[in-house]
Amino acid sequence: MSLDGERHPRTVALRSAREAVIARLSDSFARDELSLEELERRVDHAYAALEPSELQALVADLEAAALAPPAALVPVPAAPLAAPASRLALAVFGSVERSVSAVVPGARVSAIFGNVELDLRELVLPPGVTQIELRAVCGNVELTISPTLAVDCVGASVLGSFASVHRVPRGSPDEPVLRIVGRAVFGNVEVKTLPSRARLDGARRALLAPPRGDER
């Protein structure tokens, strides 16, 4: 059996090392140890690497930080902590499906080598603009919204696609609007419109109901 090309032991070892490094980088990104920009940069270098040593260099600092002993505790005056961004959904090498009826402004949705599907048809928003952030890195995020929900998508894509939906009312500025921002890198962000479950169920029942006889 030929061991040339993709089956060569060196190629197999390099591919295995690359997958392990990308998994480590994705895990660090999910724990907010890496920014999205830094994740993109290191993943690019991982795919360009020709030697295992080049791959190891991409996670050396992360491994060192994980092994470093904790610093000595020094009493400091207590300071108010900034409220962390709310994590609405996170999929890393997996899949998440969820129905959502309320979101916190600034909520984040991340799909990293994974898939997130959120049903927002029952979503109730306060007056004004509520913004959420989506990140799809080698993954997919799919949002399902109702036809009555005002939406404004402001996203960017790198070798991927980000939904372009702009359905904002021209009336009162206090009308609820869902603003979707973020980025898709080697991934996709899709926004589709469907009637609410209640409306769909009502239509199905009407179709299945026996016809009424003529009233005399």
Q: Could you characterize what this model shows?
A:
With 216 residues, the protein is an alpha/beta fold. The chain has two domains: 7-67; 87-196, no CATH class. Helix content is 28%, strand content 30%. The chain has five helices and eleven strands. It has helices at residues 9-30, 36-48, 52-57, 60-67, 197-208, and strands spanning 87-92, 95-99, 107-112, 115-119, 129-137, 140-145, 151-158, 161-162, 166-167, 177-185, 188-193. The strands form two sheets. A six-stranded mixed beta sheet has the order 1-3-5-10-7-9, covered by helices on one side. α1 (9-30) runs antiparallel to α2 (36-48). The chain is elongated and about 75 Å long. Residues 78-84 have low confidence and may be disordered.
